[in-house]
């Protein structure tokens, strides 16, 4: 298993290109199941989860062609010959559950493994299933699999989500594009990645309105056609590198970054003492003085995103004063805390809140990645720490971030990947 060796203490200066959004790209690939024609996606991030999604679609029978041979553009299309999503793929990547709605819409049946839990929480899919039943699906759980049929096709209806679930919104949205009649998804998630999915689906001939409003209205059509879509920039990657500028006292140009996508993160960065400006090339982030502690609560968009919580905690670990971070989305997303404390941070977890008392400096140490965002939190700490940090289990990071060591080293970081 690869590991990173990081020698901290150097402010980062330079340019970092922000790639295509993982949490948009994965769903846009699934949208390729909704038509037999070619869906072309560009600005595809080269990360492990995208490769896993490619494998999943291929085993469903559709062709996934790497148009440039470098993983940056995919052409997806063809007929579905297998409506089963197996446990070995679904358990590796939870986003696989999103094939359920499209398979039901196109083939009127699907057998999809239940994803099971993951490091950050139990992550049930009850809202996905109840919503599809509202649209006429018959669902039976057996042997760890979801057996779903819609013998008469899906029928549009009003679905009220008890929580603004990103995945449930996306599953129902894609299913509804081919349902008979109108579907309303009330309390729909409003994350920008869903707006990107709506734009692509409408380009494919879907009839969707209400993007970003919390209520999505979909008028079903008989079929969708091919399209070409450029994946939006990854706002979480952008926010993550903004924290790298903050924690190292640097100044970074994040090419392609969009301030508007980051919402509450921009306010939190500025309150902490990181200046953020939108420039023609993207987003500029630089530390303007001492970091100051702040309080954060994670919430659905446009609130502070849970996917930025671990990264921000690393930065607040060396801020002046105390901070409190409350995680309201997942029940176990503080696994980076003991690792940060091994580096000299002073963080105490009380239920869903973490109290962070800023320290003057962190010390390098051997630490272990536990999940995608936690792994970057430890990189950030290592970039600021005195001495050497070794981060193991870097495969967690490779699932969702592209070429991290290259992007950071190009801005002056002393970081290397040791193959293992
Ligand atoms: C998406 O996960 C993202 N993943 C997550 O990013 C992100 O943290 C999350 O949205 C919240 O923004 C992808 O887009 C691939 P949810 P998702 O459904 O769709 C509960 C990352 O680091 N829930 O909004 O699974 C669930 O347990 C990843 O890139 C139910 O109870 O998130 C969780 O507590 C991590 N029943 C909360 O809702 C359901 O049927 C939010 O889940 C569905 C969800």
UniProtKB/TrEMBL annotation:
GO CC, one annotated term: cytoplasm
Domain (Enolpyruvate transferase) ranges: 7-408
Pfam family, one: EPSP_synthase
Matching SUPFAM superfamilies: EPT/RTPC-like
Reactions the enzyme catalyzes: phosphoenolpyruvate + UDP-N-acetyl-alpha-D-glucosamine = UDP-N-acetyl-3-O-(1-carboxyvinyl)-alpha-D-glucosamine + phosphate
Function: Cell wall formation. Adds enolpyruvyl to UDP-N-acetylglucosamine.
UniProt keyword RNA-binding, yes or no: no
Biological or metabolic pathway of the protein: Cell wall biogenesis; peptidoglycan biosynthesis
Designated gene of the protein: murA
The protein, known as: UDP-N-acetylglucosamine 1-carboxyvinyltransferase
Entry EC no(s): 2.5.1.7
Binding site for phosphoenolpyruvate: 22-23
Active site: 118 (proton donor)
Record PTM 2-(S-cysteinyl)pyruvic acid O-phosphothioketal, positions in chain: 118
Annotated residues for binding of UDP-N-acetyl-alpha-D-glucosamine: 94, 307, 329
PANTHER family cross-referenced by the UniProt entry: UDP-N-ACETYLGLUCOSAMINE 1-CARBOXYVINYLTRANSFERASE
GO molecular function: UDP-N-acetylglucosamine 1-carboxyvinyltransferase activity
Family to which this protein belongs: Belongs to the EPSP synthase family. MurA subfamily.
Localization per record: Cytoplasm
Entry keywords, A to Z: Cell cycle, Cell division, Cell shape, Cell wall biogenesis/degradation, Cytoplasm, Peptidoglycan synthesis, Pyruvate, Transferase
Broad class of where this protein is predominantly found: cytoplasm
GO terms for biological process, alphabetical: cell division; cell wall organization; peptidoglycan biosynthetic process; regulation of cell shape; UDP-N-acetylgalactosamine biosynthetic process
């Amino acid at each position: 298993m690869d590991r990173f060796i990081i020698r901290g203490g150097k402010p980062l200066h330079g340019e970092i290109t922000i790639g295509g959004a993982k949490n948009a790209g994965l769903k846009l690939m699934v949208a390729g199941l909704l038509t037999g024609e070619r869906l072309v996606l560009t600005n595809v991030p080269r990360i492990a989860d995208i490769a896993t999604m490619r494998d999943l679609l291929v085993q469903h029978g559709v062709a996934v062609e790497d148009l440039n041979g470098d993983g940056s553009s995919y052409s997806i299309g063809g007929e579905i010959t297998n409506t089963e999503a197996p446990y070995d793929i679904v358990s590796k990547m939870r986003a696989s559950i999103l094939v359920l709605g499209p398979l039901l819409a196109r083939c009127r049946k699907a057998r999809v493994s239940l994803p099971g839990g993951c490091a950050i929480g139990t992550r049930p899919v009850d809202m996905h299933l109840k919503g599809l039943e509202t649209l006429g699906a018959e669902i039976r759980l057996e042997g760890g699999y979801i057996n779903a049929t819609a013998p008469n096709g899906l029928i549009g209806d009003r679905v009220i989500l008890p929580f603004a679930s990103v995945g449930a919104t996306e599953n129902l949205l894609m299913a509804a594009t081919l349902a008979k009649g109108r579907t309303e998804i009330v309390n729909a998630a409003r994350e920008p990645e869903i707006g990107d999915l709506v734009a692509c689906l409408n380009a494919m001939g879907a009839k969707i309105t209400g993007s970003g409003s919390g209520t999505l209205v979909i008028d079903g059509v008989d079929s969708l056609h091919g399209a070409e879509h450029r994946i939006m920039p990854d706002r979480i990657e952008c926010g993550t590198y903004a924290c790298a500028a903050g924690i190292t006292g640097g100044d970074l140009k994040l090419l392609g970054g969009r301030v508007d996508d980051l919402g509450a993160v921009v306010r939190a960065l500025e309150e902490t003492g990181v200046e953020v400006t939108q420039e023609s090339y993207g987003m500029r982030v630089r530390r303007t003085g001492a970091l100051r502690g702040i309080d954060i609560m994670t919430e659905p968009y446009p609130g502070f995103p849970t996917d930025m919580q671990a990264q921000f905690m690393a930065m607040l670990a060396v801020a002046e004063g105390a901070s409190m971070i409350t995680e309201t989305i997942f029940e176990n997303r503080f696994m980076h805390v003991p690792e940060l404390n091994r580096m000299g941070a002073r963080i105490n977890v009380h239920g869903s809140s973490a109290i962070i008392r800023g320290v003057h400096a962190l010390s390098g140490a051997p630490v272990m990645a536990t999940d995608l965002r936690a792994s970057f939190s430890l990189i950030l700490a290592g970039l600021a720490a005195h001495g050497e940090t070794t981060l193991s289990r870097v495969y967690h990071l490779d699932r969702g971030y592209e070429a991290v060591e290259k992007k950071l080293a190009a801005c002056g970081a002393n970081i290397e990947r040791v193959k293992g």
